[in-house]
Amino acid sequence: MAKLTPFEQEVVERFKEGVELNKEKPNLGNVDIRKTRELIKDAGAILLDVTLPDLVEGENAEEAGIPTAYYTPYTEFTEYLDILPNDKTEPIVVGCRKGFFANRIKQLLEILGYKNVFVLADDIKYLIEAHKAHAEG
């Protein structure tokens, strides 16, 4: 078995804490578009669109005007840490095209101590379309 450094042990412990928190959430913290809109509207969740720039079709979530949305591309995410809430219990939803990068960022946020992190299980372009349809209607 690998010998872990104190830093690595701390990371593993924080990962375990994140897993335990996710066990308490429906679908382990994976949410659909309806639940994402509810979290944004009712709970004031911030939305992090981590879609890679070359995969954005049209507008990203921030450009589309989704309230509390920030475009924080996965490959540049660490440059945007200053937009994260100071209160680590505030809800955060992370989304991208297929969920792969969103899940990685979710894990990072949990390791950083954030307690209410969710992943949009659907393609974020559908959330953007739903937002525009409701804004126009």
Name given to the CATH architecture: 3-Layer(aba) Sandwich
Describe the largest sheet. 5 strands, parallel
Count of DSSP strands? 5
Contiguous low-pLDDT stretches (5 residues minimum) are none
The strand line-up of the biggest sheet is 1-5-4-2-3
Output the structural class.
alpha/beta
Overall shape:
globular
The CATH topology name reads: Oxidized Rhodanese, domain 1
| Overall tally of domains | 1
Question: Mind telling me the CATH class?
Answer: Alpha Beta
Radius of gyration: 15 Å
Could you tell me the mean pLDDT? 93
The oligomeric state is single chain
Number of helices: 4
Amount of helix: 25-40%
Work out the strand percent: 5-15%
Measured distance between first and last alpha carbons:
58 Å
Q: Provide the CATH superfamily.
A: Rhodanese-like domain
SSE succession? HEHEEEHEH
